Amino acid sequence: MSVQASSVVPPVAVAVGAESPSTLRNVWRRLLHERLGLLGLALVALLLFTGIFADWIAPFEPNRINVPDRMQSSSLTHFAGTDQMGRDIFSRIIKGSQIALIVGVSSIAIALVLGLALGMLAGYGPRWLDNCLLLLFDTIYSFPTVMLALTVITLLGVSLKTIMLVVVVSTTPVYARLVRTSTLSLKNSEFILAERSLGAGPVRVMLRHVLPNVVGPLLIIASMDIPSVITLEAGLSFLGLGVPPPAASWGRTLNEGYNLIRDAPWIVVAAGIPLILTTLGFTFLGECLRDMLDPKLRRII
Q1: Is 299 among the domain residues?
Q2: Looking at the whole model, is its pTM more than 0.70?
Q3: Could you tell me which residues are beta bridge partners of residue 88?
Q4: 32 in Cβ contact with 38 (< 8 Å)
């Protein structure tokens, strides 16, 4: 048995090691030929750049009140106009991208890590652990996201950390169940059985063999969930349950513009455009990556 296992493992290891760089090159080459994929990548890069360097590229202080310049429409000084307190809308939109980036990317990243860990434990661990974790996943997933958000916000108060907690709690079971299903399908694969026959422990098998095979599709799903999380934060802020004032959230800017839509419609337009572009960017990029990485949907260019 040891002779057969030793003859099986090296080719698998060599194939995995040799395939990874070429796979990345093929994905990048295919992405260059996909117009929607490039558009999505450009929009996502724009959000990342704006969110990271918001404090340096904003032309005005987002929360600075300037009463003489209140309710001005678009001009060379104020590209997106000003609100009822004279605050520059364009600067608030740029600062709002930082909040959207923190809520969307950070919370999804935390949920992704937790989902990977719990999903692999449920799929590769003993049956009793699988049943307990699966019951926990189903219990959390049974709560509607908005109702869960309203309950947590009522108990813990309105803050950015509360919104991130809601996103992590509601998203982790979804990722964990996907990882659990993939882990169960890989658990009895030949290359994993060969690795275990050589004395590899569960931690090594999960990190070296299970993780690389389940993380790819999960990253695609996570990238398409980011705009949903950003929209959730904007919706809660619009209702007054998100980021507390005077934070320059896109949803709060929409709320302030909605109250002044007859006198200053440019506020709603300026706050709605980044939400649309962010949703389109992550959706286009995620769809393109899914088409390229999924063998069933892959197209030859």
Answers
A1: no
A2: yes
A3: 82
A4: yes
